[in-house]
Amino acid sequence: MPSSGLPDLPKNAPADGPLAGLLVVSIEQAVAAPLASARLAAAGARVIKIERSEGDFARGYDSAASGDSSYFTWLNQGKESAVIDFKDAGGKALLWAMLARADVLIQNLSPGALARSGFDNAALQAHNPRLIICNISGYGDSGPASKKPAYDLLVQAESGLISVSGSPDALGRIGVSICDIGTGVTAHAGILEALIKRGITQRGSQLSVSLFDVSAEWMMVPYIHAHYGKGAPAPVGLRHPSIAPYGAFECGDGRLVLISIQNEREWQRLCVDALDAPWMAANEAYMSNNARVANRDALEADITKITKGMSAGEFSERLTAARIAFGMVNGAADLQSHPAMRAATYGNSAADSLALPAHPILWGDAEPMPATKTPKIGEHTDAIIAEFSPAEGDR
Asked: Mind listing the pLDDT tens digit for each residue in 362-379?
């Protein structure tokens, strides 16, 4: 059961973080924009999350995090939540007052929605010339596809990612929200670049990042093969399309071990030291990578006959001794016990603590960011109204 009673928290993540002192206003929902602002929060920025009265719809994706959504718990640590209707005159004035003091605005409303409410890019930068504006969309801010609803799986499909994923027998989505995640990480990088530029020029910037553009760039190698080569690679499951053996092999206990052979020296060591099969190293059908790829089915059958005679643990020990790169094909539950796993304490909106994978950036020997929590819907609205309410006559 989760423990409760996280310590009293500052307004956001570490006061000595590299982005401490920055104010981020994020009109966000789902995954991409919340991930970008979560990265900023983890680095010490103060992040105010603007929500509708019903809240970010990612709050309702599931209840796996001790009653809260797994997505929301991951992506909203240490943020403040304010429910602001900026179509209303009072809410609009409050948002203008917040943006006058903000360093960064992130938004992933439908293209044009914020501008229709009076907050177009030109007006925003006239109001605060140092403001960095990051617009996140599905298919771009303009053009014939810009109005299409965009969710992760749909973009995986339309960008072609699915066409090179899965197995030869069945296409398959990538098992996490990879387009959303990639877009959030890309937006974070763009915002950091804009902050560096502002430090030089003292001027803000306007950035636009779309799920489709991020996914299309990731398709660069298959795209080049499709348009300038002999065709894009087909789905190959747990194989590599142009290297063999590079794939998963079943052991006697049913576990899969994935091995990667990169050169002929490794191939010799695999055969002689790990598989105890010097005859395989001398087989002309397997004498080069091109030959092994051409005879992949027979090669993998020969290797599997041997690996099924030992446990995954024994095979792993042999691969380690032979200096062969390998990985266990683990499940999500296995991650907790992996020797490389770092955990940090996250909190849901009830301040129940959960040990979850830690933030991937380490600053020297610093500990992971201190325990934080996700906000309840509108938890900080009253305090933010009191802090930012514009003076009489202000915009």
From this structure: 777 666 566 688 999 999
Residue where one domain finishes, among candidates 328, 353, 376: 328
Task: Judge contact between 19 and 94, C-beta under 8 A.
Answer: no
User: Looking at the domain assignment, is residue 334 inside a domain?
Assistant: no
Same domain, 256 and 319: yes
What is the per-residue pLDDT across 217-255, written as a single tens digit (0 to 9) for each? 999 999 999 999 888 888 888 888 889 999 999 999 999
Q: Is residue 146 part of a domain?
A: yes
| Burial of 254 (C-beta count, 10 Å sphere; 0-12/13-18/19+) | exposed
265 inside domain: yes
| Rounded (10°) CA dihedral 114, 119, 120, 124 | -140
Q: Domain boundary at 277, 301, 328, which?
A: 328
CATH code at 183? 3.40.50.10540
Cα-based distances in Å from 66 to 2, 371, 373: 7, 16, 13
- Is 156 in the same domain as 297? no
* Domain total of the chain: 2
Burial (0-12, 13-18, 19+ Cβ within 10 Å), 261? buried
Domain that holds residue 180: 23-219+340-388
Q: The pTM is what?
A: 0.86
Task: Tell me how far CA of residue 373 lies from CA of 15, 73, 266, 342, in angstroms.
Answer: 16, 8, 48, 19
335 found inside a domain: no
